[in-house]
Amino acid sequence: MGDRKQARDEEFQGFVVGRWPRLLRTAFLLTGEQHAAEDLVQSTLEQVYVAWRRVDTADDPDAYVRRVMINAHARRHRRRLKEFLAPKDDSGLTHEVPEGGDRMAQADDRSALLKALAQLPPRQREAVVLRYWEDLSEARVAEAMGCSVGAVKSNAAKGIAKLRAVPGLADMVTYGGRK
C-alpha cells in the first residue's frame, strides 16, 4: 500500500515539475498579479493532488487541471469582484524569450498588454487567455470554462475588441513582420 502511494506521489510530483511554468503563466494572465497567480496555482494543485487518481486516468490531465484552475479563479473572483487589478510585478515569472529584437520595447509591449488584459471582465479575460495564449480550440476553451462554444466565441470577440480599442495597443501588433 505504501509503495502505491509513493508511486502516486512521484507521478504527481513529475506532473507538477513539468507543468509548473505554464500553469504559473496562465494563472498570472488570469489574475494579473504574481502572488495571486502563485496562490491560484498552489490551491489548484492542492485540489488536483486530492483527486490525483481521477486526474491521472483522465483522457487529458492538462485539461482537467486547467478546468480546476478556471473554477478556482472564478470562485475567488466572485468573492472579491474588484480584486481584478492591473499586474503590479511579473519579475518572478519564467518568461518565454523571443528571438532578437529590442528588449526594452518588448518589455513595454508586455506591460501594456498585461494592463489591458487586466481591464477585461473575468469571463472575457479567461476566454482570451485560454484561446489565444494557451492556443486552445474553442471547444476546449468551452470545456475549461464550463460554457458553450458560442459563449467562448462571444467572450473572446468582445475581449479582443476591447483590447483593440486600447490606445497604442493595436499599433504594437506586427502583421507579416511589419508594423
Automatic annotation (TrEMBL):
UniProt xrefs under InterPro entries: RNA_pol_sigma-70-like, RNA_pol_sigma-70_dom, RNA_pol_sigma-E_actinobac, RNA_pol_sigma70_r2, RNA_pol_sigma70_r4_t2, RNA_pol_sigma_r2, RNA_pol_sigma_r3/r4-like, WH-like_DNA-bd_sf
Domain RNA polymerase sigma factor 70 region 4 type, first and last residues per copy: 112-163
Domain spans labelled RNA polymerase sigma-70 region: 21-80
SUPFAM superfamilies, A to Z: Sigma2 domain of RNA polymerase sigma factors, Sigma3 and sigma4 domains of RNA polymerase sigma factors
Signal peptide feature range: none
Keywords recorded for this protein, A-Z: DNA-binding, Sigma factor, Transcription, Transcription regulation
Pfam family, one: Sigma70_r4_2
Highest taxon listed in the record's lineage: Bacteria
Assigned protein family: Belongs to the sigma-70 factor family. ECF subfamily.
Name of the featured protein: SigE family RNA polymerase sigma factor
Organism of provenance: Streptomyces kaempferi
Organism taxonomic ancestry: Bacteria, Bacillati, Actinomycetota, Actinomycetes, Kitasatosporales
